[in-house]
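Lab meeting notes turned into a lecture example. A postdoc, R.K., suggested we walk through two folding results consecutively so the class can see how the record format repeats. The first protein's sequence and structure tokens come next.
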Amino acid sequence: MTGVYTVAGGDGSERITPDVSEAARMADDDDSEEETEPAVELGDGPAVEGAPLARVASRLTWPQERSRVIDREGDATIRTPDGPRELADVLEAVDTTYFDRRQTFVEAVEDVIGRGPVRTAE
């Protein structure tokens, strides 16, 4: 094989490593493709009010108590399938008082607001 080297370890193991110059050349080829075509085509559609729930959740560290989430992010407007809502209002309907991790928080909020596409401004 061109550009591939086998190195024997002192313990009898073998390790195959690629030629660094070959790997770098291949990476350069990948970059040129990314520059010519965008990954996602964005349109001129209507605006969506509020922030995605994932963005609000990413601003917090976990674990968190519900009351602390309300104190820190309660005034944030989040996107829901039924239109924008304040996070504090949504959390009032959540039974969980302690979120041990981000996913627990997201699931509890989605149980209240629903899952699915968000409504856009008409």
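The second example is placed directly after the first for contrast:
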Amino acid sequence: MRRFKLKKDGSLVNDEPNIDRTTGAMPGQHNRGSSKRQNLDRWHEAELSNAHSQTVKPSANLGKIVIGSTVTVCDVELDLTETFMIVGSTGAAPDKNKISCKSPLGAALLGKTAGMTIQVPAPKGILNFKILKIK
């Protein structure tokens, strides 16, 4: 909630200090740390300590694309073949042929099997890919 003061001329003035909303720091406090930042750090640590990971065995996937699958696809219109790995959103590295499961192509591939053709929305229109191989 913002705080305002009423001036003598009837106009309103913002009475809030200029706070950095990302760190909660007042001007000049950026190097001192803040309780809000410390609270966020504690929250992230708690979330990470409560996180559970699950190893997915390829035999359990029944040939479906999951995070960790290496997929070979062919762009139907351009007849270009490319192989890449589907990774989590923080592991994406297009230069290393790792695409995020949250990207349009990665999301469209999840759960699909070899031989299927998928449509992926892109800024230049719909792209069609045929899934050639899954590892």
